[in-house]
UniProtKB/TrEMBL annotation:
TM stretches of this protein: 12-38, 50-70, 91-118, 124-143, 155-175, 190-212, 233-257, 289-310, 331-349, 355-376, 396-415
Compartment(s) of residence: Membrane
UniProt entry tagged with the keyword Endoplasmic reticulum: no
Bilayer disposition of the protein: Multi-pass membrane protein
Pfam entry (one): Nramp
Main localisation: membrane
Protein name from the UniProt record: Membrane protein
Keywords: Membrane, Transmembrane, Transmembrane helix
Organism whose genome encodes this protein: Shewanella japonica
């Protein structure tokens, strides 16, 4: 068995690489939801290309914190949660408590977005459709487990990526140059601080996704031998794909919608229709339902991925904190509880999609500082073998990332207080 593993490491063939892909692609699927289809597209539609460099910079500055999941697990064969516990029980407890809040909010956000896309096909109230989406997601996870999620996500991701590339290529072909009108405004105004923070909160995804990547990698290792090199390649591929697609979605909004005078509606059903219009305007009205289906499947896969990822981390977190044994039934109960509380949050917002997503993304940005610090602390800890710790370059990049996260968090809090007092 050890001999086979050595051959795998040295050959590192294309077929071996493709077979080992999974956790990184699942991470990309989790990212291409609200942060891409909503925030990136909306940034392009409202501000043109002005925020393109911000999107790339945010991805770069968050890289060390996301990479911790794959690197730590590849080095130790343990999840990030085990690493937090080694740092001290209080660190794992803090992560799990914050993760519980994030799980409920994020599940509600992606579920409502999925339900909004489903209104293109089924004329039912969005809260009822959200309930159906949750039931379908839970059935897929409980009956199909990780293996089915892994296979479906790769197909859906490929379909949406190809569709979006075609749409952007066609839009660029008919692009007449930048439109400068009274609708063209600068995002660098006091009034847009909330939008900027929300956009960056889930760009490319909440940082706690690094813990999901860690657990998915362990799950993948149960059925396949994966070397450290393969695990890191899988993560890097997924991360680069999310960054590129963020720019592509921004380009779609900038090329098709910017300068038209139209803005995205806060209504879930109306927003979904506008999103599909972006594609059908350049690919032809006859493609409308096909585009709607692909977009729905993409967001649905995000919902399934989010429920699975958060539930796994919550289950393992409380398991480690209470010295319990692994239990499939407990994971199912966690999924049911998170989904139920997420549905309650959806009912509270009553179909107002954009306000809910902005709330969720802002919450993600504010908690990101703590999650990022935990990952950096772990990847520079003496509990990790020296050859696997972050080097000077990664430490510098992570330091810049923390300064950016803390700085914008303080700016947002100050902005929020100023808005409330005025």
């Amino acid at each position: 068995m050890q001999k086979n593993k050595t051959i795998t490491d040295s050959q590192f063939s294309t077929s071996t690489l493709l077979a080992s892909l999974g956790p990184g692609i699942l991470m990309a699927a989790a990212a291409i939801g609200a942060s891409h289809l909503v925030s990136s597209t909306r940034a392009g539609a409202e501000f043109g290309w002005q925020l393109a460099w911000v999107v790339l910079l945010v991805n770069l500055l968050k890289y060390p914190f996301f990479a911790a999941g794959a690197r730590y697990t590849a080095a130790t064969n343990e999840s990030l949660l085990h690493g937090y516990l080694k740092q001290g029980r209080g660190y794992l407890l803090m992560f799990t408590c914050l993760n519980t809040i994030a799980a409920i909010a994020s599940t509600a956000g992606v579920c409502m977005l999925t339900a909004a896309m489903l209104t293109q096909f089924i004329p039912l109230p969005i809260d009822i459709l959200a309930f159906l989406v949750l039931i379908s997601s839970l059935a897929l996870l409980i009956l199909g487990h990780y293996q089915l999620l892994d296979k479906l996500t790769k197909v859906i991701m490929l379909a949406l990526t190809l569709t979006t590339l075609v749409a952007v290529a066609l839009a660029w072909q008919h692009y007449q140059g930048p439109i400068v009108t009274e609708q063209t405004v600068s995002p660098w105004q006091w009034a847009y601080v909330g939008f900027l923070v929300a956009m960056m909160g889930w760009m490319p995804a909440p940082i706690e996704v690094s813990a999901w990547n860690s657990l998915w990698l362990l799950e993948k290792k149960k059925t396949q031998t994966i070397s450290s090199k393969q695990a890191i390649f899988d993560f890097n591929l997924g991360f680069v794909v999310t960054a590129i697609l963020a720019i592509i979605f921004l380009a779609l909004g900038a090329l098709v919608m910017h300068g038209s005078g139209e803005v995205f509606s806060s209504s879930g059903a109306k927003f979904a229709s506008q999103l599909v219009d972006l594609y059908s305007d350049v690919m032809g009205e006859e493609t409308r339902y096909l585009i709607g289906l692909v977009a729905f499947l993409c967001i649905f896969s995000t919902t399934v991925t989010v429920i699975d990822g958060y539930s796994r981390t919550l289950d393992i977190g409380w398991q480690l904190l209470n010295n319990k044994q692994d239990c499939t039934k407990r994971l199912t109960r966690v999924m049911l509880l998170v989904s139920s509380l997420g549905l309650v949050l959806i009912w509270f917002f009553k179909g107002a999609l954009l306000p809910l997503l902005e709330f969720v993304m802002t919450l993600a940005f504010l908690t990101t500082v703590i999650f990022a610090w935990l990952n950096l602390r772990l990847m520079t800890s003496e509990t990790l073998p020296e050859q696997h710790r972050y080097g000077t370059k990664m430490k510098i990049l992570a330091g810049l990332g923390l300064v950016y996260l803390v700085g914008f968090s303080c700016l947002f809090i100050y902005w929020k207080l100023a808005i409330q007092s005025s």
